[in-house]
Sequence to fold (365 residues):
Amino acid sequence: MKIETKIERFTTPLYMESGRILEPYQIAYETYGELNRDASNVILICHALSGSHHASGLYEGDKKAGWWDGLIGDGKGIDTKKFFVISTNVIGSCFGTTGPMSNNYPSDIPYRLKFPVVTIKDMIKAQKQLLSRLGIYRVKAIVGGSMGGMQALQFAVDYPNFSEKIIALATTYATQPWAIAFNKVAMEAIRRDPRFKNGQYGKDDFKERGLDGLAIGRIAGHISYLSPDSMDMKFGRNYVNNDGLFELFGRYEVERYMEYNTDNFSRMFDPLSYLYIIKAINTFNLSRGYDSLYDAILRIKAETTLISFNSDYLFFPKEMEHIYNMMSRNGQRVKYHNIDSSYGHDAFLVELRKFDHIIKKELEG
Fold:
């Protein structure tokens, strides 16, 4: 599989939903496979909160492949022998695309909290600008899970003729209070950490020790990505062998797992980017800008495939089923699959074998 990583820079303004303007800006992206002669084999991949443009393959020296490596590649569900796959890093992130720690041009001082609030609409507008720059004005499909699914659905509504197919996994039509509440834990934990300094920290301040507030907030997020059954299977009530049961801070295995994963995460992800992206998730609402959700959904022309997971306690299956029911009543082309899984919200990253054949069939059918 041919992999290329690039950065595209834009000097034209990006007019954002808030009324603010981002200028200049850049987008990091990866491509896999080969573009055919008439550019009819393009698939756009949209990532979730903590993801990046690195969706598949291995960089030299890396031990961990891209976050959807099991799905994207030669002969896989998204077959890079047949399709030219583009994965972009969203505006506001910290993996090469312009975000809050980027310099506020023309100064060499980071935006920090002066960075404009980003929405899902802004993210897809920037991606569409990138594709236009690359000479791509229509795509075969847009595929994404969680926040990536939000982007896929927003594309379908805002740009009805842009994609032939939309495949959205583990997502919703509007972020509900339950999910917003989990994000509130992260937001407050970060804001109240003294080392956060109201966003006035240095660029490399957390590379060695991480930010405790982000680690704590990530624990809340991580709980929402799992399910009670997956925790029972993975950890049970097992206690860490070298921790005493009657030590106050002795740990169960599930506690050690949370500590390890979230501490690592807080060393690699920028806390301001985390705040801006969870704000984008919180404000997501397909109906904004339209008279109603019905009117927004009615705009969708693409063949749409919705995939939910029955143990998802972040974006419940009933939320995707609601989209399916609306589209079905309208006579729109839509299919819905509710996958039996015990992995919770993270199933779209973990249990690929349960749905990769669905995606393969939709892309190649």
Summary: The two ends are 22 Å apart (CA to CA). The chain is about 35% helix and 15% strand. The first strand starts at residue 3 and ends at 10.
